[in-house]
Amino acid sequence: SGENAVAQTLNKNAGKKVTLKLASGVEIKGKIASVGDLAVRVSELEGQEFYDAWVRLDDIAAIIVRVK
After folding, report:
1. What does the alpha-carbon distance between residue 13 and residue 23 come to, in Å, rounded to a whole number?
2. Alpha carbons 38 and 65: distance in angstroms, whole number
3. Alpha carbon of 36 to those of 12, 50, 68: distances in Å?
4. In terms of Cα–Cα distance, which of 14, 13, 15, 20 is closest to 57?
5. Are 38 and 3 in contact (CB under 8 A)?
6. Kind plus residue range of the DSSP H or E element containing 6
7. For residues 35 and 14, is the Cβ–Cβ distance under 8 A?
8. What local confidence, expressed as pLDDT, does residue 4 receive?
9. For residues 21 and 50, what is the distance between their CA atoms, to the nearest angstrom?
10. Is-contact 33 53, C-beta < 8 A?
């Protein structure tokens, strides 16, 4: 399923900085801290480094990761 693919991609990039583009168009930038069954925890939010966010997997439209 699409949500499973999202979770697999997030797990594969755990600990890396990513940009999550949500279905609403909002972008959340930070580091993937942990991935659960329904949500991902993003830490070190850009501009709000002392805050974390929990994002529902089914709200994620795209995962943007810097590759070398």
Report:
1. 20
2. 21
3. 13, 21, 27
4. 20
5. no
6. helix 2-12
7. yes
8. 87
9. 21
10. no
Which of 49, 54, 50 lies closest to 33 in space, CA to CA?
Answer: 54
Per-block average pLDDT, block size 10, for the chain (68 residues)? Answer: 84 96 97 96 94 96 91
- In sequence order, what DSSP letters do the residues of 35-56 get, joined into one string? E-SSEEEEESBTTBTT--EEEE
Structure tokens belonging to residue 50: 């002392």
Output the CA–CA distances (angstroms, integers) from residue 46 to 4, 5, 8, 23, 38, in the order listed.
26, 25, 23, 19, 23
Nearest alpha-carbon partner for 54 in 45, 65, 63, 67: 45
